[in-house]
Design brief:
By secondary structure, the protein is mostly helical. The chain folds into 3 domains: about 100 residues, no CATH class; about 130 residues, no CATH class; about 80 residues, no CATH class. Helices cover about 65% and strands about 5% of the residues. It has a 3-stranded antiparallel beta sheet with strand order 1-5-2. Strands 3-4 form a two-stranded antiparallel ribbon. The chain is globular.
Length: about 350
């Protein structure tokens, strides 16, 4: 198996970056550069020894370029750091295409790594949030989740977006992974919800009407079973676990004790002569869209790299004008170990397949 050419570097990269991400909260560029050089060199040697065909090499590097692009998009969306994006790209250069036993995409096989990484991470975060939150608050948040207006919005959104997703995935030759699909739909809903605000129902009704005209599958029982299941997941994610996660993974930190790299769970903005705070439950894409569309701009940028030295200096300058001296900070989760776990799962499934 070709994987044995890459396994030493995969294990070295995974163990080293996981340890440093947990210990120091960073992924050093020298390990990324080493892995990239190793991956390109070994693949070039294998091509020279006729282990790889030219067609294989083209598909391999296309997959790696897509990994780089996807990593950049996720980083730009503030859903992970630049180090995580570069680490994902490095892994794509170290895994032969034949190791992906379950190809979620023929064009982009490395998407499997993301599925295997995000799924256990999501389960970990959900379990931790449920354990850390007392039963009284759980019940309170659960009751709030069953809001008729929100449920109608979710139902209309899922009715339209699942159709577009199926068409899009079929066009790219991607098998529909349920967990990954719901994750993407969840992000899209957060964006649409903010852009259209109250008018979202009108927009979704229009899209629903289009589907009713052109999609014959709406008359199948399986279609409605899938929609109801996805709706239940959306309700739990959007209105229950999102609130739980905010409270479980954030803590108050005094402004004078803020450090570079800390990620705010609250935004501060000027309104008249006062400085107010608002919770950032929808960190990442939603935080960016919210900050762009607001009349009153935030005093610091919302991104996965956290507060800069300039941000902290600006906050300390106005501290005397504030009616509070603390700000909620997100407790970050090291993603490198989960990315390494995603690679290990891909390797194990590939080995079983062989």
């Amino acid at each position: 198996m070709l994987i044995y050419w890459f396994l030493p570097m995969i294990l070295f990269l995974g163990i080293t970056t996981s340890y440093e991400d947990i210990k120091f909260g960073k992924i050093r560029n020298k390990w990324i550069i080493l892995a990239i050089i190793y991956g390109i060199s070994i693949n070039s040697i294998l091509f020279a020894l006729d282990y790889h065909s030219l067609g294989y090499l083209i598909r391999f590097f296309l997959n790696s370029l897509l990994s780089l692009l996807v990593g950049f998009i996720v980083w730009y969306s503030s859903l992970w750091t630049a180090g995580d994006a570069k680490l994902f790209f490095s892994y794509s250069l170290l895994l032969p295409l034949d190791i992906y036993s379950l190809n979620y995409s023929k064009l982009f096989p490395s998407m499997s790594i993301l599925v295997y990484a995000f799924t256990p991470m999501a389960l970990f975060l959900i379990t931790f949030a449920l354990i850390k939150t007392n039963n009284r608050k759980k019940f309170k948040y659960f009751v709030k989740a069953f809001n008729l207006k929100q449920i109608v919005n979710f139902a209309l959104f899922l009715f339209t977006i699942t159709w577009f997703f199926n068409l899009f995935f079929n066009f790219l030759g991607i098998e529909n992974n349920y967990i990954f699909t719901i994750f993407l739909m969840f992000l899209i809903f957060l964006i649409i919800e903010k852009i259209f605000n109250i008018r979202i129902i009108i927009f979704l009704l229009f899209l629903s009407f289009i589907r009713i005209i052109f999609d014959k599958k709406i008359f199948l029982l399986q279609t409605w079973k899938s929609l109801l299941f996805a709706l239940a997941i959306f309700i739990v994610l959007r209105l229950f676990l999102l609130i739980l996660a905010f409270n479980a993974f954030s803590k108050n930190v005094k402004i004078k004790r803020l450090k570079v790299g800390m990620i705010p769970a609250e935004a501060i903005y000027a309104k008249g002569k006062l400085y107010r705070k608002r919770k950032i439950r929808n960190f990442g894409l939603m935080g960016i869209f919210h900050s762009i569309t607001r009349t009153n701009k935030y005093l610091f940028n919302l991104n996965a790299e956290g507060l800069s030295r300039k941000d902290i200096e600006n906050l300390r300058k106005i501290e005397a004008k504030l009616s509070y001296n603390t700000i909620k900070i997100q407790q970050t989760i090291s993603f490198a170990p989960f990315l390494f776990l995603g690679v290990i799962i891909a390797l194990m499934l590939g080995y079983v397949h062989y």
